[in-house]
Specification:
This protein has 143 residues and is mostly helical. The chain has one domain: Leucine-rich Repeat Variant (Alpha Horseshoe). The chain is built from eight helices and no strands. Helix 3 runs antiparallel to helix 4. The longest helix has 14 residues. The protein starts with a helix and ends in a 13-residue tail after the last helix. 36% of the residues are buried.
Length: 143
C-alpha cells in the first residue's frame, strides 16, 4: 500500500491506497501515519491530499508533526484537503488551531460530492463547543 501511495502514477490508485491505510489497524506491522503525512504534504492531487488528511483524523492521534501538517493543509489552494484537514483537526480536538479554523467559516470552496469548506468549519466549531457533531448529508447530484 505504501508503495502505491507514494509512487503509483494513477490518482485513483493513490487515493485508494490512502483510504486503505487510514483504516490500517495493525501498527505492529506498519504505522501508516508517516505515509499519510507525506501524502498530505507532497502528493500533487488535492483529492489524494484530502484522503490523507481524513486518514490522519481517523487515526485519532495528534502529534506535533500531524498538527503542523494539518495546519498547512488548512491553507491548501484545493478545497478537498482544506475540508478534510478541518475534519481531522476537529476529530483530533486540535483547539490550538481554532483561529485558523474560524478563518474558514465563510470559505465557499466545495469538495466534489461534499459540502463547502465553510459548512465543515461550522460543523467543527459546533463539535468543539457542544460535543455533538452535526449530522449532515452530502448534497444530491440530481440538480
Amino acid at each position: 500500500m505504501v508503495a502505491l501511495l507514494q509512487h503509483d502514477p494513477g490518482e485513483q490508485v493513490r487515493r485508494e491506497a490512502a483510504h486503505v491505510l487510514k483504516r490500517w489497524s495493525s501498527e505492529r506491522d506498519l504505522d501508516p501515519t508517516p505515509h499519510l503525512l507525506h501524502a498530505l504534504r507532497h502528493d500533487p492531487s488535492g483529492r489524494v491530499r484530502g484522503e490523507a488528511a481524513e486518514g490522519l483524523g481517523w487515526r485519532r492521534r495528534g502529534t506535533t508533526r500531524v498538527e503542523a501538517a494539518l495546519a498547512e493543509g488548512l491553507a491548501d489552494a484545493d478545497p478537498h484537503p482544506r475540508l478534510w484537514c478541518l475534519y481531522a483537526v476537529g476529530q483530533l480536538s486540535l483547539h490550538a488551531l481554532r483561529p485558523q479554523v474560524e478563518a474558514l467559516v465563510s470559505d465557499p470552496g466545495r469538495a466534489e460530492a461534499w459540502w463547502t469548506v465553510g459548512e465543515e468549519t461550522s460543523d467543527v466549531l459546533i463539535w468543539w463547543d457542544t460535543g455533538t457533531w452535526p449530522d449532515r448529508s452530502p448534497p444530491s447530484n440530481e440538480d
